[in-house]
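Researcher: Please translate sequence to structure tokens.
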Amino acid sequence: MRKINVNNEIKPLKTVLLHRPGEELLNLTPSSLDELLFDDIPDLDKAREEHDEFAKIFIDNGIEVLYLEDLMAETIKDNKDLRDQFLNQYLKEAEIDDKLVYEKAKEFLSSIKDDKDFILKTMSGVTLRELGIGEGHLVFDQKYTAINPMPNLYFTRDPFSSIGSGVSINTMYSKTRKRETIYADYIFNHHKDYKEIVDYYGRNQDYHIEGGDILSINENLLMIGISQRSQKEAIEKLAQRLILDETTKVKEIIGIEIPNERAYMHLDTVFTQIDYDTFTYHPGIIKTLRAVKFYEKDGKISHDYLEKSLDDLLKDALGLDKIRLLPCGGGDPIAALREQWTDGSNTLAIAPGKVIVYKRNVVTNKMLELNDIETIKLDSQTLTVGRGGPRCMSMPLFRED
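Model: Translation complete:
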């Protein structure tokens, strides 16, 4: 059995989960971009080239890289009953409303013998043409997919979150991303190495929460964005599960309100930790900052609203006399807006003071380096059109304490 161990954002990273962009990107069309949460159609070859370089950064730094598609293929390997169970659930969640299309899709997917090829096809989606439906009758501006692709899967941060020795399999905000969590659900219930990992939330709850909003500051403290994608009620439910459970070390959760809009979709798009006392942030969140602290009182979860500056909130939460807040864009308001849009605040620490950043955010990166932060720069011209940075594209499974 393998362990999950994530009690912080910055200690040396040992194991990370990725998903290499696949043919799901080929099933994006201009008319489906809004529905599937993309700003443009990426070049698949270039996206893979950039993502492979991302993986190489981890490997070069002695970090084990696992892939979602590999873990899922291992989960169903040599278990036909489990594969059939997964397929039936996958098809049900695809909401195919045509009986003929449903039957042909099931037949088509069942015919794929290789387990990894089968999993990759469930991720990429299934076209009507692949099912032999509508051949020779190409009509523009109509739907061509029998099952929609999951192009956001390379943002492995969101469908589940590593918290301590367990995970939170999340209930996603948008319909197009809800199906993504099926893979984590099967891995953490059936994979030979991970099936004993505790799930602290669940993929079919009434309130939505996503991994980009969940930051493990230390073993006792989480900070979670109250955002477009994560609701206060979901945070309270997670607090009940974590704080009242004597087997976890979480004692407090601070929910931080951020603007409810796509540019600031998750807390980690405007705020990440990069060293023991150092954070990068987008200045635009300061004007709207309100927080709510969840904690145990008399055997129940209680909460208090906080009206503090980000500086004071962090000092009080971490017990520090001072912290460093490094602004996206280096204090230039135009650079801040431009580089936040291309994930200048979405850094991934692989060790204290050592972070992966997008190369294109030159103003922010220079500011970080002037403050003694080591930056590893990733070319991201293609990956960034999905609206996510290095932290979004990675799910730590094991960090040092």
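Researcher: Any highlights?
Model: The chain has twelve helices and 18 strands.
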